[in-house]
Backbone:
C-alpha cells in the first residue's frame, strides 16, 4: 500500500523551508483531489510571492485559517449547507480595506493575506465580498480532515507560526490540473519541497505531538499539536440476536459526538481484521427503512464477524453521512416531491470529507487494528481510512439485494459514486 516515493521530501525538511518563508508543495491522495498546492505561511507573504502563485499555480488563491479565527473575524461560511464535492470550506470573500484599491493587484492581495494572519485584525479590517477566499480549517487539522486547508494550518502550527496560510492549486499550462509527475518537475524547477498529506498525517500520528520526543521540541522550535481526538469509555459485554460482542463507547473530543466500537475476539497488530465502519442511519438501522440498505448491511456485518469469531464494527454517529437527520429527511421529502437527484446529493454523501474519517481511524487504532479486511462497497471510504495509516488489505463487498424502494438510490450509488454493486 505504502509507495515510498523517492521524490517526496520528509515533513521535517518541508517544515524547515516553510518556517523560512518558502513555498511547500503539498499533494493529497490520488483518490481524493489528486492535486498539488503551493502553500506558504500567510505572515511570509509578499506581493512578489502572490504574483508567483498566480503565475505558476494559476488555481484559486485561498487563505486557510482555523475555524475559531474565522468566527472571531466574522467570516461566515459562504453557504449554510455545503454541497461541494469535497466540502471545500469557503467562507465569504474579503479584501483588506485600508491601503488597498480594488483588492485585485498582487499588492492588495498580499495585504489582505497578511491582515488575515495579523492578530490585531478585526472584522472591520475587511470588506466583504472581496478577492481573497478564506477557508476554515478543522480544529484538529489533518487528523480530522485530510484536506489542503487543514494541512496548511497544521504546517503553521508545527512551525510555531501564526495560524494562517495562503495556498493555490497548481495547474499545467494547458489548464489541466498538475499531477504528481508534473508536480515533481515544478518542485525541481523552483527548488521547493514536495510532501503528501498522507505523510503529514503519519507524522502527526507517529510522533504523537508531531515530534521525535519532548527534548527535541526545544531544539527544533516546533510546537506541539494534540493528536488525540477521542476519549475511550468502559468495555462491556453485549449479547445480541446476532451473537455476543464487546461494546466500547468513544467520545469525539472535538464535537462531543459519541461513537461505538463493537468487537469480537482478539488479534495481533499485524493481523488483518474483519471490519466495518458504519455511518449511523436512524431510519435504516433502527426502523428497518427500505429507502436504504444501512440496517441490513450492519446486521450482515455482525453476522459475518460472529461466523468468523473476530472482528470490529465502528459505528460512527453521523446521521445522514454528516449532514444531520433534519437535512436527510428534508432530502427524502424533496424526493417524494419528485426531485430524485437531491437524495443522491445529500444522503449519499457527495461530500465524503464531511464525515470525519480521522475519528474512525483513531478508534480502529485504539482497538489495536492496523490492517483491515474492510466490508464496504464504497471506494471513498477506503481512501479515507488509508490516509490515516490504516492499511486495507482486502475489500469485501457487503451487498444487499435492492428493493423497489431503494433501487434508484442504489443505482445512483453505483453509477455516480462508483460503488461496487453487482446486484443493481
Ligand atoms: Zn440509511
Residues:
Amino acid at each position: 500500500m505504502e509507495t515510498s516515493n523517492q521524490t517526496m521530501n520528509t515533513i521535517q525538511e518541508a517544515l524547515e523551508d516553510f518556517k523560512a518563508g518558502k513555498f511547500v508543495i503539498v499533494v493529497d491522495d490520488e483518490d481524493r483531489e489528486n492535486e498539488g498546492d503551493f502553500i506558504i505561511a500567510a505572515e511570509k507573504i509578499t506581493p512578489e510571492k502572490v504574483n508567483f502563485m498566480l503565475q505558476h499555480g494559476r488555481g484559486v488563491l485561498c487563505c486557510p485559517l482555523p475555524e475559531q479565527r474565522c468566527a472571531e473575524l466574522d467570516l461566515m461560511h459562504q453557504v449554510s449547507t455545503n454541497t461541494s464535492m469535497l466540502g471545500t470550506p469557503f467562507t465569504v470573500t474579503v479584501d483588506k480595506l485600508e491601503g488597498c484599491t480594488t483588492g485585485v493587484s498582487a499588492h492588495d492581495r498580499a495585504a489582505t493575506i497578511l491582515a488575515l494572519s495579523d492578530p490585531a485584525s478585526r472584522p472591520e479590517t475587511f470588506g466583504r465580498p472581496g478577492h481573497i477566499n478564506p477557508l476554515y480549517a478543522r480544529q484538529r487539522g489533518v487528523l480530522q480532515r485530510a484536506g489542503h486547508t487543514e494541512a496548511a494550518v497544521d504546517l503553521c502550527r508545527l512551525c510555531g507560526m501564526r495560524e494562517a496560510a495562503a495556498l493555490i492549486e497548481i495547474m499545467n499550462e494547458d489548464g489541466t490540473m498538475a499531477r504528481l509527475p508534473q508536480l515533481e518537475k515544478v518542485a525541481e524547477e523552483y527548488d521547493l519541497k514536495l510532501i503528501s498529506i498522507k505523510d503529514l498525517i503519519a507524522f502527526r500520528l507517529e510522533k504523537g505531538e508531531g515530534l521525535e520526543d519532548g527534548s527535541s521540541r526545544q531544539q527544533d522550535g516546533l510546537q506541539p499539536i494534540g493528536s488525540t481526538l477521542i476519549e475511550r469509555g468502559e468495555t462491556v459485554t453485549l449479547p445480541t440476536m446476532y451473537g455476543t460482542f464487546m461494546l466500547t463507547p468513544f467520545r469525539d473530543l472535538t464535537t462531543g459526538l459519541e461513537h461505538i466500537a463493537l468487537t469480537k475476539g482478539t488479534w495481533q497488530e499485524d493481523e488483518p481484521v474483519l471490519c466495518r465502519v458504519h455511518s449511523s442511519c436512524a431510519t435504516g438501522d433502527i426502523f428497518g427503512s427500505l429507502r436504504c440498505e444501512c440496517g441490513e448491511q450492519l446486521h450482515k456485518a455482525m453476522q459475518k464477524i460472529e461466523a468468523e469469531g473476530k472482528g470490529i464494527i465502528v459505528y460512527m454517529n453521523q446521521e445522514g453521512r454528516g449532514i444531520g437527520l433534519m437535512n436527510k429527511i428534508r432530502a427524502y421529502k424533496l424526493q417524494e416531491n419528485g426531485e430524485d437527484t437531491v437524495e443522491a446529493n445529500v444522503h449519499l454523501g457527495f461530500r465524503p470529507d464531511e464525515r470525519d474519517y480521522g475519528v474512525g481511524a483513531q478508534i480502529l487504532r485504539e482497538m489495536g487494528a492496523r490492517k483491515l479486511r474492510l466490508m464496504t462497497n464504497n471506494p471513498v471510504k477506503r481512501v479515507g481510512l488509508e490516509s490515516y495509516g490504516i492499511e486495507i488489505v482486502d475489500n469485501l463487498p457487503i451487498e444487499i439485494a435492492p428493493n423497489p424502494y431503494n433501487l434508484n438510490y442504489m443505482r445512483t450509488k453505483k453509477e455516480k459514486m462508483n460503488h461496487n454493486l453487482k446486484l443493481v
